[in-house]
Amino acid sequence: MKLYKLNTHTRGCNKSYDADLVLNPQDHPTAKVGDVVEIYSPEDENGTHLLLQITELNEQSKTGRNVISIESCIATAFKMRSYSNVVMQIVNPADVALDSIEITFKDQYMGRSEMWRLKTYLTNTCVYVNKKIDYNDMQIRCQVYEMWSQGERVASGVITDDTKIVFRSSTSMVYLFLQMSSEMWDFDIHGDLYFEKAVNGFLTELFQKWKKLGCNHEVTIVLFSRTFYAAKSLDEFPAHMRDCLQLDYKGRYYEDFYRVAIQNERNDDWCTVLAQLRKLFTSYQETVLRYHERQHMHIPHATNSTATQGNFLEVLNISLNTFEKHYLDRTFDRTGQLSVVITPGVGVFSVDRELTNITKQRIIDNGVGSDLVCVGEQPLHAVPLLKFHNKDTTLTSADDYSLPHWINLSFYSTNKKIAYSSFIPRIKLPILSAVDETDVEESERNFLSCNQSEYIHNSLFDYDAYDEQIFQPLPAQSTCSLQRVVRAKKTSVPSFETYAYRNNDWENLTPTKIPSLRRKMSDPDIHHGTSGMLAALTDATNLSESLASEKNARRTIVSIAPIVRPGRALINPFDPSHVTIKLTSNRRRWTHIFPKGPTGVLIQQHHYQAVPAKATPAANYSRQLQHSTSSNNNCNANNNNENDYNNAAAGEQYDQVSTHSLMSLSKSIASQQFVMGEEKVDFFKRRHNSLLTATAAAANVPNLTATQAKSYLWGATGEQEWTPAITTENGNATGKHMKPIVEVDHSNFGSSPLEATTPEAVGKGKIIIGVDWKSLSIPACLPITTDYFPDKRSLHNDYVISDYTLLPDDVNLDYARSRAVYRKPLSTEEVCKEIVSQRLAQGFQLIVVEEKPSASNGCCSTSGPGCALTSNQCSTVLPPSAETRKEYLLSIGRIFHKISLTGSVITVTGYRPRHPYPPINVDYRYRFHAPQHETYEISGVNFTTEKLENFNWNHMDLYICTRGDVDYPLMDSLKYWRFRMYLLPRENMVNKIVSFGSQRCDIFTDAVVDNTREQIDDFVRLIENVSKLKRQIGRKARHDTPTPRITEKNHNLLNAPQQSINVRSKLEASRISRIFPGTDAAAAAAASNAAAGVIPRDDQDDGFPVDIKFSANITLAEIFEAMKHPITGVGYFTQTQSLPSCTFVSYDALLWLKARLSNGRHPLDILEAMRKEHMICHASGDWSKPIIAGFVFYYVVQQDKNAKDYAPPLNDYSAFVNEWLEIEFQGCSFLWHDEPSPSEVPNFLRDTTAPQSWKTKRVYRQSHLEIDVNQKSDRMEWGHVKHHTVMQPGFAFELVVEWVTSSGPIVSDLISGWMRKAIHCSYQLVSVPADPMAEPFTKKSDPLRGPIFIPLCVTFLPDGAALFDEFPEESRADRMLFLQEAILARFGFLPCVLEETNKDLPKEYQYVHCTGNMFALIRCASNKNQVESPSRQEANVTRCVYGHTNNTNVPKKVGFLWAWNHMIPNKKWKALTINNSENGELFQLKMLKDFREFCSNSDQRLANFWANCQELKRKSKKFEYNNNNNDDSKNI
Predict the structure, then answer these.
(1) Model-level pTM?
(2) 953-961 and 808-818 are packed helices; what angle lies between their axes, rounded to 10 degrees?
(3) Under a CB-based contact definition with an 8 Å cutoff, are residues 89 and 37 in contact?
(4) Which of 689, 712, 833, 1490 places its Cα 20 to 30 Å from the Cα of 74?
């Protein structure tokens, strides 16, 4: 075996040493780029083997002879010493292929289509633990976390087409819900309160793990509970309580409470938060139970519910209402969504069937991770267990159960030791209390106080046999219906109900498809279980053995008086493994995030078997393995352990239920060996050659594709069997501590063996309860692949098929002809890829179907061998003569799409269910208390299932084909992504408060200098920058800011010959390339000017080079000629596609004219006259467009059409507007025309009030946006920008970026570029939510967010006089609005202009603070609704239907709604800490506090403000009066 000397190198020091592996090509004549090599130390052949890929072979990077060099970090991680000898050999990639790999990423948004592209990029590459992956085309950075191959974790391997890639995010949106049910105040077995166990135990540990793994989640923590009231009717409640009461199925009144402790926060240290939670806990129960108490008022008695009766599903739905809207408030620094419910219960919940179906469908469709963490003791039956509300109260009615596979369950137990015992209880005994006998139901009394004689009587009854009979699946022909037996009333335990089959061949049943119950909204995955079974199934050790063996005797006891019922199998929560259910796509939606265990079944790493429930004698063991066709090598690898298990339970017989169960039995045994194997085994042990060659045997394990249609009922994977001894990795009950996999220290891979607990320690039946820390720390994103596709028969019977074809080339040909602006179209291949991407982005998954040799009759056969479901497989498989053919299968829920590309035709085939579930809508009311609120406010929300089949995919596909043409606009129903921003001027006053600690915050109107001119100039610079426009004469930037340097790239563009108008090169695909003109013309013009004796002087005013002023009688033609002058003229933009030559903006022309006109002529009139004379025209070539002042393009019509740089206009107005941002300027016309200065009297005291905001027909306009400005992406990226049509100084200017065909990191790059430019131009671009106020009862709002109501004191005038008494009544409502607006202006708020949505509702005015941190809203009273003072209805903002009521008797309060901007990144938010303040008070909270004080007239501040305004009015009247008198005296 040839040895090589090992060197190490550092990447980046030397160009030739830039790869992970550098070798000498002469030593390896056969090696080629892409080969995978294995490197290991010859002394330690069984140690860690490092796999690396040869990425370059060039002569320059030669090492010495027989020397190889690897990157130093890799060498350190794999304990490879420099200058040691190593073995290196080329290996076959298939032998070292990975089954699955986990990749983590942080602080970035990665959409599902990017994940797919990354998967394609990584295929056929070699990875090792902790490898950093930079995918530059998509600007994605991520890291390898964990890899699995053939049932064990490995340290390196090769990603192939079949490798499942799991993406885990360290920055997710996490909702932590703490269920504050009555058990929180109980003590656990160690004497801690369950609350302490949850907070001091679980949360503390969780936050430590976050810190260790460097997680930076955005967290919301909510305490929630349900309060029951002892009342029989609504009349017993006082009026103020009735709004929010709900009635449950038993007729009990209840109310749900939510206390938001932390909202959308990121913290480096969460310890402070834990203290806050402890503080809340002390008063929580008291506050909630006594919330409604008032003096002299009787309230029905309130009690806190138990965990089982609590609002568990409602909580999950509340988080889903926010998660569903992830495309609305998109942020670019987090990916992934997780809701965690922490309950003191044991995982059993009493729930409503409809709500369960809604929750299940929404969780699965939205791909949201939902974890349930129980701090109670683990019960002896399968959990989580949902018990459906039983509305049928008769004694014989059966209860239904469901074992939801869509909730990931963890049990948390503390590490405390009890000195005297190592016993861990798993049941809670009922409390014996001396209750009056008559009160207890007969059944309960019998259950709790059975006497000895009854036990003897019961021993005749063989429980085990009875159970087996009841829970048997139905016979194959399913004609025989299940019958219920009602026993005589005199039996000892009347609550037992018995069931039996009428026919006696129940032992020989084979599992078949269980028919789903024909019942309202019954879901095929949810099966329905027994009634009092939980009570009945006690451990009957004293059964008479003889009776047990006499099956006939047993049968006669059971079968009495059968009653016919609909046939269905019942779930036994104590032994769910014998129920297999029909496989559905929902069942397999998340399975690809789980690694395969040693036996080829998917395992959840925190569920381990401590001891097998039943084992088979060694002799049968191998036979059964062969029988079940899963003779996997690993099973026999540790044969020495096998007998320990088998002897332990050699006497037990194993009931054969299905081959599947047998497989899983062998699987569960093998997986125990995997975990509990000898401690000597190295964590990443060398792959034995036997394993490498024996992949064929391993491939025999069953794969749950369309062929295998059964799955276990319990568990997230559906492949792991539940047994009472199911355990997980917390290892606390045993002497040795087993490390959870998530905690393996990744820095020293290859050295640390998994510290495993020995079989002896665990074999005594100790239960280890565990937590899925990995899911709670770095939650997995919904996998992009799945493996379920219905079989042919099912497709035919249960689905409706529809299809359509797309011919992108033909479509693009038509559009290229009719389009005014040429854009490079997408190729058919790109369209096909984009169509798949869009489906992935909307939650679809690619279906990976196992390839069978005889695929010709399969449901998804393709022309050509094998079904190319991965994008890069096809070209190699097909014979070269065939035309390109690819096929993709995708699914979400019960909807399947097949997208096939043949030549230049794309066919989209949709399969949707023939009988879709009826849509359900649950109306839910609750009370919530958000941070900084003072009360629990009422809100209501709807939980609905979405009809996924109604998504208009045809429209979306045509949108992609036509490259976002205006014919197929983005509609709301397409759920496109959007990022909403406000452009706000930078305000220096904030500094005064933050840095200099100004005590008052109403100082924002104190600024004396009017900086409108600077604001507008900066705005023009910014929009030019965003539009990528350059001027031919560099416009002087003010404040002496240097003009931005031209980058190298732009130089190249400049010197490149001008392209014809209809072609846009790849380089030029960004909006526009611009240039400074050749210097010759400018120099010549300057020389001629000098000769003529006109010396240009810089006018400090407008940044234009200016010559002398025009004479008073200058003609229009002369002005026009001066405007065109190359040096002293207006100045044009450089040549740009779709912009005609000699283009300028009207704002520049107006300022230019103002500087030169001397006789008071209006610049706007002159421009309009020029337009009428056909000297200038709108840049689109449309003559009908009048001159509008602002950033609006016009061009000089009279120019030499033969000049080489002449470009004609588009002559298509709509195409032009779709290409360019055009913005009108209002409220600043005094800049170009002298106007009288406005009155200083505040608007609310003027005799005639000024209008509230700018008026225009259209508030928004939309333009096309090239997103990939840096030319980085390998994907065609574009989007749209929606913007205000008007810019007015002192108002917020809104921009919204919208996209579907772009990658998150690329959009992020574009927007952060804009934000940097905005700062350079003295503005700030702030991201804002789609629904800033999040008012109650609004559809898009976050159910746990709400505005704070701040009442305005209106009774501060002496003698209680009403405000505005001196003005006519019809103007008072408006004046009140203007007063409120003036108060907001004092505090630095700017108005936002919004589209009017509903004309019937009272008018609303919204404001944003100049820092962007908070919003305010004023709701106007319409005059017809007025009562007392104008404004709006009583607002304990109860989120209640205020503003939607016609009840005129409700007293109205004047005030403001105040809301926080949760889109501002935490660091920025926290950065505004006031200097030298106690406890680092935040600027935002200080603002709120000061605003509240001002509005409540504390220290007479409001009264003083009013008095000052009245004084201003008095002065101005006096001034006017004096002026008028002076005029009169002159006239005399």
Answers:
(1) 0.80
(2) 60
(3) yes
(4) 689
